[in-house]
Amino acid sequence: MISLKLINLYQISIYKLKFHTLIYFTIFSTLNLSCSKDEESLQDDSKVLLESISIKASEIKGSKSLKLTANLLPNNATNKLLRWELSDESIANLSSSGILNPLKYGSVKVVAKSTDGSDIFDERVFDFIPPILVNSIEVDQYEITDGLPIQIFALVLPTDAENKDLVWSISDSSIASIDQTGLLTPLTNGTVQITISSTDNSGIFRTIEVEISGVNTQKRTTLKAENILLWQRNNGGWPKEPHNSFTGYDRRQTPEEIQEAMNKKAFTDTTIDNNHTTGEVRILLEAYKNTNNNDYLVAAIKGVEYLFTAQYANGGWPQYYPLRNNYSRHITFNDNAMYNVMMLMKDIYTTQANTQYFPEAFKETAKNSFYKGIEVIVNTQNLIDGIRTAWCAQHHASTLEPVKARDYELISNSGSESVGVVRVLMSVENPSQNIIEAVKAAVSWFNSVKLLNITTQRITDSSQPTGEDVIVVNSPGDVIWGRFYDLETNQPFFCGRDGVKKSSLSEIDNERRTGYAWYGGWPKNLLNYEFQNWKEKNNIQ
User: In angstroms, how far is the first alpha carbon of the chain from the final one?
Assistant: First the structure.
């Protein structure tokens, strides 16, 4: 039999075990609870709540949308997401991202609320204000008595009208033409009605009557300008052939040439090569100044519009437009093609060299065109070991990398074409630092690659296929440059129609040796006079 004392000891032990277990559980639970509260406290402390929301107030005119924004404080708030609410959805709607779209004129209240539990909000009233419309167009009375163009001016009222754009139209385009700046150009004598209309849906317009007299209906002509009209293609440009040298414009065209020109009106062989299109435009402007023959001005306008259209979005011009599937689609500095176009553009926007006869709107277009060209010129300057140098005769229309043209016109730095490129850059008024560095780098490159104490001679040589030859001879004191320089060695090279690069002129075939300008003094005036004058003009060190 188990003794009573043993039973009591067992019960006491069980009791002690239970007591200690209870104490342990209580302490562990307390510690656990304390840790949880501390962690929760740490988490709460790390969450930064919004304290202030301030909607940026604005008014909306017409049907314009507004992206709502708000200033939020503190800047390090953990959750800056807002909930936008609108008081009246019949007047406007509001997207979840805060874009307010008016539906009709009136006022709405917008509320921006926090979403971080801080219950912070701000509200603003937005007024949708009708736009101020045109209520009248004031125009003086005009007449033409000398047969010359006049500029018509219109005053749009009220002066704070939101949209002052106008549309100009004419009752009879056979008597005169009018552009969208109000330039009225007479074609013959008569009377026309000019209507000037608002474009802001106000329905306001004004019509005036202009009497035109003094127009010489017997058109004065020049042979050269008439021939240029004959060879102009329908797209506004001119071909290089048959009058590549322009001398063919100075004589009467044969019946066969007249028929050929008429048959090819729709051809798209139009180009800026060898000064074409730009050259014809300038001749027509001079003829218009001397004869007041409107046919010449109209043709010149078409020529400039062709040049506007032909320019790439990056600012370059191809040699031919419409584009051909060969090297002519590259951006072309060769034979000063882009130089000629860009200097015409500059003359137009600065109203030089008879360009005052062009529509006023041409100025802004030409200026944009010119500066786009400047941008692509700076972007195509070749780098050798990270140093700016010069330009290839042509650059890829997309990548702007230097590219070859004909088999003997390989990738290179051009000692010839780069001169015209630099002159265009130096024509920029108030040049940027980027342009200044481009010019200085190119001049430095010209100085580094000049060839001393040699020149070329053209000699008669019956042993050669062409009956002549071009040779390089010693000439103390002379300075010349190569046409093409290797982009790696910076040394001049020469190439025949086989496309193989040679290090001396004598190594290529006689036909290419005598039929291409491999050496020249192209940069001389640039280095001796123009560069220094440019630095002085622009106060450049």
Answer: 122
